[in-house]
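Good morning C.,

I know you're traveling, so I'll keep this short. The sequence:
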Amino acid sequence: MTFKESYNLPRAALAITLAGLMFASMGVFVRYASASLPSEVLVFLRNSFGLLLLLPWLYHHGFRNLKTNRLSGHITRSVTGLAAMYCFFYAIAHLPLAEAVLLNFTSPIFTAIIALLWLGEEATRKLLLTIAIGFSGICLILKPGIGILSTAALVGLISAVFAAMAMVSIRDLSKTEPTRRIVFYFSVTATLISAIPMFWYWQTPDLKPLLAMVFAGFSATLGQLLLTHGYSLAPAARVSPYSYNTIIFAAIYGWIFWSETPDILTLFGALLIISAGIITLLSRPTRSLTEPD
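The tokens, ready to paste straight into the viewer:
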């Protein structure tokens, strides 16, 4: 299927929005399970269940063409993505849900910076301005000048940095690697690496936290598939802004389940970060979404 044949903005927007709902739902399940399990166990369970739920999708599309000549690139993507997950899960356990998600969603700002250094992309005045706007929003959320800066908030911000590194590595890999290959190697590598700390941190979960992580893995995997489908239906610059619905869903969940309400500085910071992220995404040239085989 060619890009022109698959262009369908309403369906793409719906898929991206539903993906956001799934990712916010994953945050709820992780937050619930974090009350009784450490982050290391949560990350392992999320990756394990995610890989199991991904296998039918891989079987449907076939396991052919999974051989790669870019193993080092896949390892880089996997390590940075896994580091982002560890930090994000820690932030979810120690911050209001919407704030943890919002800090993670600063990744487009860091992606722009890393792409400048790693891929040598052009540093336009608009891009530099949006980076400055985004960092202003980050400062409003972290509130370093009024004594509210917390370790959890810094870890949440670090999760965005690692997520940005993962996104830049995906952008580099996608020049030669199809989506299913990138997803496959990340799922396998992340599961294997996250199994190592289980020799020290493993705790046998009770039934409810275990079921929560099953649903977390399901939500994350379904969200990733919806996100991939959405980006296959329309230009990334047109549909990426819909991914910020994740923050809205997370805020609603936080209010319903934990009576969390953001303060005025966080709201203004969110507005700046979302604006900067959208401008950054819209400023990028759109490439064909037809995958190599």
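Safe travels,
E.
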